[in-house]
Amino acid sequence: MIRYISITLLIAIASLPAAAQQYLSRNTQIHFFSDAPMEKIEATNPKGVTIINVANATIQSSVLMKGFQFRKALMQQHFNETYIESDKYPKASFTGKVVNTAMQLTISGNYTWQIEGELTMHGKTNPIETKALVQIDGAIIKMSCSFNILLSDYAIAIPSLVKDNVSNKVRVDITITDVKPM
Amino acid sequence: MQKQLSLVSLILALSINSISQENISLDSLLPVENNQKITGTFKSSRVIHEHSVEMIAGGDMDVRILHRFGPVSDGIKEFFGLDQASMRMGFDFGITDNLTIGIGRSTYRKEYDGFIKWRMVQQSSGAFPVSLVLVGGMGAWTEDFFGTAKPTTADRFYYTTQLLIGRKFSDKFSLQLSPMWLHQNFSPVTEATEDYIATGIGSRLKLSKRTALTLDYHYVFSELPVNYYNPLGIGLDIETGGHVFQLHLSNTVGLAERAYIAETTDEFFKGEIRFGFNLSRMFTISKKKKPLS
Predict the structure, then answer these.
(1) Domain count, chain A
(2) How far apart are CA B116 and CA B134, in angstroms?
(3) For chain A: N or C, fewer Cβ within 10 A?
């Protein structure tokens, strides 16, 4: 009988994960910047969320479009109402995979992850490739990456009247902090 | 006893397993934003003549140039009214997001006007169905008066109080009702009353992302003198970034409250219609840079 107990206990211990498999960050800051001759457009949203799954090396992020803060109130209104249409498409999401290295978040050091994935926004999905810088210092984990997107890829139309005010190319900077095991 | 123990450890083993495999949906972790404020009820802070429930954002300035031309029915000789123009130049300032002040000067009776506009409640999803905005205004006309009565300086002043009740029903359709009271110390129109009670009805129907049809009508409850009519305007709003162009057909000459409530002498449905446009340009004047997050 003792043997049976020890076997079941062994199963129980074996099924305990050696380390956390999933990590969560509620402090995913998304910043974007576009430079046109007439107007520089810039906004930040600090309230994105990210889940990192070490088991299958995937990263998923999601953000609400209405949370983007602009310096000019009118710009924010136009962003939500005429460009990104945030009532119709309330969020943007990213799903990606680390392709260059085995994913781990436990050994301190600086790493570069090559990430390939897809960004869905304004009802359209496009591939994204980027290099993310990962800093691990014990339990403190920070990641950052930048990439460019084209508004035309996401069916965000720029009327010819304001083509000097809005650039088709937008740089997106992402900073992920406060990464905790789930 | 031992049997029970093994059962417990088996359950333990299974439950640990199920925890580690649980998948949490990412979207369920996004911050829930309740009571979201409804913005963009109208494209501009005026429907056509009257105030809309839209405010000027804190730190912004709206420069407004308004024109009303002569009657279209004057024909080619007067270039369909464009030879004569009545104009108002105005500056509106957003003190905070809920408090706007403005000043203006109209060519009609050489009138100066100013107002304070306070948004008491903003429509928000799940919390409040309408926006409530209070507008208090005053003005004075400075044109020479050739009637028999000689108005004193105090006589030239007038005061308006208006409550705007507006709702954005859908992405496309907005409606506002705006009861108002106008008091003039002296009426430059003979046999006219000094106090007017009226209500405005303003509406917007979006045609595309950047264009909208507008309607602006005032029903005057007080008795208007003979040959004076309720002001009515039908317009098209075109928005291009920081500019809003409002093109319209109306029966009004005056551009501030007193002038269009008490002194509209054309009858819209008899074809006494004037072309006009409002031009609005928004500037961000606050030096204080708002933090981005």
Answers:
(1) 1
(2) 8
(3) N
Q: What is the CATH number of the domain that holds A86?
A: 2.40.128.110
Q: Which residue among A42, A72, A77 sits closest to B39, beta carbon to beta carbon?
A: A77
Assess if residue A87 is contained within a domain. Answer: yes
The C-alpha atoms of residue B162 and residue A63 are separated, in whole angstroms, by 41
In a domain, A3, yes or no: no
Chain B residue nearest residue A157, CA to CA: B209
Query: E strand or H helix at A44, and its extent?
Result: strand A40-53
The distance from CA B136 to its chain's CA centroid, rounded to whole angstroms, is 14
The C-alpha atoms of residue B260 and residue B113 are separated, in whole angstroms, by: 13
Angle at alpha carbon of residue B120, lines to B257 and B178, rounded to 5°: 35
Q: Which residue from A21, A60, A64 is facing B20, i.e. has the nearest CB?
A: A21
CB of B1 less than 8 A from some CB of A? no
Rounded to an integer, what distance in angstroms lies between the CA atom of residue B89 and that of residue B96? 22
* Centroid of chain to Cα B142: 27
Whether A6 maps to a domain, the answer reads: no
Q: Is the CB of B20 less than 8 angstroms away from the CB of A16?
A: yes
Give the 3-state secondary structure of residue A80.
Answer: helix
How far CA A47 is from CA of A28, A86, B283, in Å, comes to: 6, 16, 29
For residue B29, give the chain A residue with the closest CA.
A49
What crossing angle do the helices spanning A2-15 and B2-21 adopt, rounded to 10°?
10
Partner-chain residue, chosen from B12, B24, B36, that has the shortest CB–CB distance to A12: B12
Closest CB to B30: pick one of A46, A72, A91. A91
Q: Is A178 at the interface with chain B, CB within 8 A?
A: no
Nearest Cα residue to A140 out of A94, A102, A180: A180
Domains, chain B, in order of start with CATH, read: 60-142+153-284 (2.40.160.40)
| Structural domain boundaries, residue A166 | 19-181
Report the residue of chain B nearest A3, measured CA to CA. Answer: B6
Contact call for residues B40 and A39 (beta carbons, < 8 A): no
Asked if B4 reaches chain A (Cβ–Cβ under 8 Å), the answer is no
pLDDT per residue as tens, chain A (182 positions):
666 766 666 665 555 545 678 999 999 999 999 998 888 899 999 999 999 999 899 999 999 999 999 988 888 999 998 899 998 999 999 999 999 988 889 999 999 999 999 999 999 999 999 999 999 999 999 999 999 999 999 999 888 878 878 899 999 999 999 999 98
